[in-house]
Amino acid sequence: MTDRRFWRANARIGHDSLEGQLTDRPLVPGVTRRIRVPVADLCASPGGKRDKQLLFGQAFVLLEERNGWAFGFDPADGYVGYLRGDVLHDAPEPTHRVTARSTHIYTLDDIKSPDRLQLSCFSELAVVDETEEFAELTTGGFVPAQHLARLSWQAEDPVAVAEAFLGTPYLWGGNSTLGIDCSGLVQFAFHAAGRSCPRDSDLQAKLWDDAGDDLRRGDLVFWKGHVALMLNATQMIHANAHHMAVAVEPFEEARTRIAKKEFGEILRIARP
C-alpha cells in the first residue's frame, strides 16, 4: 500500500522518480525552492492539517503551483505535501545553519538595529561575508556570528540537542524552537547529529535494534503515537501534550501516567 506521506504525485502531476509507476499524468523533475519565512506548515492537502514544518532557508522540491498552493516534497526526509505558495522563493544555496536555540536577522551589523525576522535553530542561511561579530546574508541582513555554524556542522550527542529544547511549547506537527511535537523532537535531534531519521513515530519505531534491559542515554521509548528519549536509566525527555512543552520526567512516573491516560503500554524500546 502506498504511503501518501511519501507518494510524490497528486491527481494532476507526479515526480519523475515515479516513471514506470504512473502513466496517466505528466512526470516532472521539479525545481528546488527555499523557505522565505521563519516556519512554514507542510499540509496533507491545500488548507488541510499540518503534517510537519520546514524552516527558513530549507529546500522544497516544487512540482506544481495551483490556486496559491505549492505541491512537492522535502528532499531531506522525502515528506510530501502542500505549502502556501508565498512561503517559497529562489535563493542561493545555504552555507550556514543556525545552531543557537533561536536568533534574529538584523537590518544592520548592529544589535541595536531593527530586527527583520526571528529564526529557529537549524534554519539555513547563505552567508556572503563574515566578521567576528556578524555574518552578512546574500538576501540582506545580518545574523550574530556566534549563532551560526557551517552547513557541515554536526552535533555530537542527539540527546543534548533534545535537552536544548527544554521548555519549548508543544505543537502538533511542529519542527522548530517555536513549537515541536514528540517525533519532531526526535527527528530534529538525530538530524542535528547527522543521522537519518524519519518524521513520524510509527516510522521511527521500525528502525534500530531493540534496547537491552538496562536503559541507557539515547534509548528511544515508543508508545502508539508517542516517543521519548532517555536521558539516563531513570529519566526521559519528550515533547508532550500533558505538559504542553518539552519536559523531563522520571521514566516510571511517565510510563504509569501514559498507560492510564494517553497511549497505553510501551510498544518498543530501541537503541539507535
From TrEMBL:
MF (Gene Ontology): cysteine-type peptidase activity
Coiled-coil parts of chain: none
Domain NlpC/P60: 152-270
One GO term of the biological process aspect: proteolysis
Gene3D superfamilies to which the protein is assigned, alphabetical: endopeptidase domain like (from Nostoc punctiforme) (3.90.1720.10)
InterPro entries reported in the protein's UniProt record: NLP_P60_dom, Papain-like_cys_pep_sf, PG_Endopeptidase_C40, SH3_16
Taxonomic superkingdom: Bacteria
PROSITE patterns, per database record: NLPC_P60
Transmembrane residue ranges: none
Keyword terms: Hydrolase, Protease, Thiol protease
Family: Belongs to the peptidase C40 family.
Name used for this protein in its record: NlpC/P60 domain-containing protein
The species this protein was found in: Marinibacterium profundimaris
